# Entry
Amino acid sequence: MMLSFVDSHTAGEPTRILTSFPSLVGESVAEQAADLASRFPWVYAATLGEPRGNDVWVGGILLPHTNDYDFGVIFYNTTGNLGMCGHGTIGLGVTLQRLGRLGVGTYTMGTPAGLVTVNILGRNDVSLRNVLSYRDSTGVACGSVTGDIAYGGNWFYICQDHGLALSESVWSLEKKGQALMAELAHRGITGADGARIDHVEYVWPGDDTCDARNFVITPSGAFDRSPCGTGTSAKLACLAGDGKLQPGESWRVRGISGECFEASYELAEGGVRPTIRGQAFITAEGALHFDDLDPLRHGLTWA
Ligand code: PYC
# Structure
């Protein structure tokens, strides 16, 4: 079996878009994502994990257009499906330009989390108007820290009183973020309707070049090299709730790679609709090979 792909990075965070994939069953993107998980459970580790990648990668399976949207996508990481992915959307926009399928303009994108508007602004420049984002609870204690629980297409625990320093090694921050994520699950702290919190976002004050810095742990346990589009969306919902950012006001967040996303929001029923703008660059394209004779064709997973 062979699958065609295009790779890109958005602020250092890699995205691998599969441009050929067997048809998935389901009316909605959420149903097709469920079909992917049940019939192709190997795809997560095989297309993103070792030996073809590692747990930093986010993948996307491109779905054909329907009457409801111009194109669809199921984002995933090495462990399973993501509801949405902001950096992946910016990477996908640049990938579709590279393939000659999109030019500068505005398009609708179906995702399991809902409809997203994608604006191709230039060759490497993309913005997205994300799904409804909202804060579910504020000041939730977990051990020695407190955090807001908010949704931006995925569920986040957003923590500012962590006492951590950005000068600390990324591996140490990653380990602490993983431990906090495990502690949230252990204590039964969830998003709305018992949704699993699968991202932890540490936030620091900004400086004269940005409004905030962040460091985000993703469901695979790896840290997001970019400022995380869905995490930025969740944070915007919190800033709006606290009256610290007005609708339409620009907010700039710098991720651990040093690159920034520009963000703003509109008020919407039940929350905010964030707009996130960033840049992505193509890094590779080709075909993944899965040789029937290769005992490790479905990738390596470490316990
Ligand atoms: O940019 O939304 C994002 C994202 C989610 C996981 C990794 N990146």
Observations:
- The radius of gyration is 18 Å.
- The longest strand covers residues 271-289.
- The mean pLDDT is 97.
- Residues 58 and 281 are 15 Å apart (CA to CA).
